[in-house]
Amino acid sequence: MKVLIGSFSSIKILGGGVDIQIASTARVLKTKNIEIELFNPWKKYNLTDYDFFHLFAAHNGTYHLGRSIKMLGAKFVLTPVFYSTHHNLQLRLNALASGILRKMGGIWTETQFCRELCQMADLILVNTEAERNLITRGLRIDAAKTAKVPNGVDKSFFYASPERFVQEFGIKDFVLYVGHIGLGRKNLLPLLKILDKKSIPSVIIGPVLNTNYARRCLEIIERSRSIKLLSTVEHDSEILKSAYAACDTFILPSLFETPGLAALEAGIAGAKVCITKYGGTQEYFGDYANYLNPYSPASIESALEKSLNMPKTHALRDHIYNNYTWEQCGEELIKNYKKLLNNQA
């Protein structure tokens, strides 16, 4: 089996969850004797050489690539990475209005980009039932061509040790956030205000973006005596793994997460997890995490305090290890690849 994988053009510049998902998926599939190639826009392709084109993310950054692949007749697998805080009725009305506006004046919305890519796809791989619900009931896509393949985590995080981080930075049992700094969806600002106000020892790991939101975050970090910023830690570094193991609570106060790969990494490394309730997170973390309403600073503070006052256990770590390693996700993906091949043979 030979698969060509693509995504948005800035993926390696921005990094983040989709980049990790693609790299991890490709690594696992290669161990299963599946030939994987990452799409290169400067290369000329004969798409008949591949069994599938697998596109990750469904938005304006991937739309033209997906449409081109479909027009050229390749079998098209889509992992949308889609979530919306709108109800299904709102999404249906949005899709209807977007379709009319597009025909009348070439006006597009993010919902329309996702909906059309889903319509083009031969197979849609969702990572939560919440995402499937939005796509099938909100965007009105045929449920028969959807399948669930969850996101995963690298097993190496399971074996992380706190010693290296403690030795290098002299801090343990802190609150940890890992992700972009300055991306509005990550909702970091209210968390920083809480951490600063309550003088909670905390570490923020991630690249700082050139945005006004990032500058507001940096103002708090720079004046705070309890918040430490590490902006140049690579995802595959031992320091990141050690930070997960050394922290008390890992927190993602995002507007939504699908489900938050960093939270899976932290959880399997032994951290307590405090995370947004939006995006399908409860399907992954179940009763093993504390959930927060990202639109309420009081909820963020309450969930964090609750987590800090709880003892650490191995329950979440074992739950993630037993259900959400990339190897397990890869097996599920292969099943769906084979099913699509057999159905279209």
From TrEMBL:
Gene Ontology BP term (one): lipopolysaccharide biosynthetic process
- Does the keyword Transferase belong to this entry? yes
User: GO molecular function of the protein, one example?
Assistant: glycosyltransferase activity
- Record keywords: Transferase included? yes
Query: Which residue range or ranges hold the Glycosyl transferase family domain?
Result: 172-315
Q: Which UniProt keywords apply?
A: Transferase
Q: What is this protein called?
A: Glycosyltransferase
